[in-house]
Amino acid sequence: MMKMTTMKMKERLEKKLASANRTFDYNREKDTLKVMEAGNSITLSIPQIIANWEEQADVAVEKIVYYVEEGLRASQQTIDISASLPNVYPVIRATSFPQKTKDGKRLLMEKHTAETAIFYVVDVGSSYRFIEEVSLEGTDVTIDDVRLAAFANLRKRATTMKKDSVGGNDYYFVRTNDGYDASRILNESFLAEMREQIEGEMVLAVPHQDVLIIAGIRNNMGYDVLAHMTMQFFADGLAPITSLPLVYNDGKLEPIFIMAKNRPKE
Q1: For range 78-82, the mean pLDDT
Q2: What's residue 2's pLDDT?
Q3: Does the pLDDT value for residue 1 go beyond 70?
Q4: Could you give the CA distance from residue 87 to residue 85 in angstroms, rounded to a whole number?
Q5: Please, are residues 75 and 40 in contact by the beta-carbon 8 Å criterion?
Q6: What is the pLDDT of residue 259?
Q7: How many other CB atoms sit within 10 Å of the CB of residue 218?
Q8: For 93, which of 97, 184, 201, 243 could close a Cys bridge (C-beta 3.0–4.6 Å)?
Q9: SS3 letters for the chain?
Q10: Beta carbons of 212 and 185 less than 8 angstroms apart
């Protein structure tokens, strides 16, 4: 495979994403490419795309092109929040995720843990649109209505898992690729069911939006393996969330910092 450079990848992305009303802004210092259209923008990290390309070749580029096209299309649709309640969902993001749109409108969000926040979106088919606070103005819809509908819609989604065991520790991976894998950490009845069947300490990880890892940890090695996996997923994700796992105790989630070869101290 030929060596991929930043400039080659930048040119390839611009060629694939070229469109009449679209402009690009390359930031040489940060190695990012901003794609702009109709007042909306998506910023891409070129080194991350190159790393994915080295593993998946052109499939990685096609995925990014699809992600950008759908994201820009979704951001140009106006939201009728009353009509949209059957299609609202909660999504988990890092607490550092922007809380305002580029034009200064506040996004509808709530706190979750020290590492994570809950944002609300409207599903528009193959993408979703973040809900702005202004969408509720002049309507009878409250944030409570949005939350209730979003969590109910999330519970209706099928949750399939793959299981892997290493050194006596069990790891379950939720990767349905429907855009709400990490968000399933908000499905309390699902977490309670998992607690029933998991042996050892129950630890969860949401390294990026398209994976939820649930671990049943019985020894120190279990923490090491989870820390390594979480860091790897975090580095590869399109929408990274947090590399810190979360311990599940009595229905509550607490972020923990795992040193390699070390069990976290309570």
Answers
A1: 80
A2: 66
A3: no
A4: 5
A5: yes
A6: 58
A7: 15
A8: 97
A9: CCCCCHHHHHHHHHHHHCCCCEEEEEECCCCEEEEEECCEEEEEEHHHHHHHHHHHCHHHHHHHHHHHHHHHHHHCCCCCHHHHHHHEEEEEEECCCCCECCCCCEECEEECCCCEEEEEEEECCCCEEECEHHHHCCCCCCHHHHHHHHHHHHHHCCCCEEEEEECCEEEEEECCCCCCCHHHHHCHHHHHHHHHHCCCEEEEECCECCCEEEEEECCHHHHHHHHHHHHHHHHHCCCECCCCCEEEECCEEEECCCCCCCCCCC
A10: yes
Token pair belonging to 218: 């019985």
pLDDT (tens digit, 9 = 90+) per residue, 141-186?
Answer: 999 999 999 999 999 999 999 999 999 999 999 999 898 999 999 9
- Mean pLDDT of the residues in the chain: 88
